[in-house]
Design a protein that fits this description.
The protein is of the alpha/beta class. Helix content is 18%, strand content 39%.
């Protein structure tokens, strides 16, 4: 079974590695782990995201069926990321919003779009049991 010290791995397309670096490292504050001619490997909030240089990216994405991100346990962490994204002028695909008010799955959410059209969703659930 997965242990907390293990990392989830996700590979995504990147049309330009310098753009990907600027968005993920300079924008979101992810740590660059490695860089090669064809990819960059990132510490994405404790998991591994690899941006592979590719011509197969989606310049006009839709929210469903494909996006990825982080669900925060603490509201303050989610709010700090919203503030960081605004300060660093990252492109919001969906502005922060409140969803399912009054229901057990009530949560806060927003989506960012990276330069290659990959969509990232960041959430915070009022009830931590709803994270999964």
């Amino acid at each position: 079974m997965r242990e907390p010290r293990d990392a989830f791995h996700l590979a995504i397309p990147a049309r330009d590695l310098d753009e990907a670096y600027d968005f993920y490292v300079k924008g979101l504050g992810c740590k660059l782990a490695r860089r090669y001619d064809d990819r960059i490997t990132l510490d994405f909030f404790g998991d591994q995201v690899v941006c592979h240089l590719s011509e197969n990216y989606d310049p006009n994405p839709s929210m469903y069926p494909r996006h990825f991100g982080v669900t925060f346990r603490e509201a303050d962490d989610w709010r700090r990321l919203v503030a960081l994204a605004r300060t660093r002028e990252l492109e919001f695909f969906v502005e922060p919003f409140h969803r399912f008010e009054g229901k057990v799955e009530e949560h806060e959410s927003f989506m960012l779009k990276d330069p290659s059209g990959n969509l990232l969703e960041f959430k915070y659930y009022a009830d931590p049991r709803m994270m999964y």
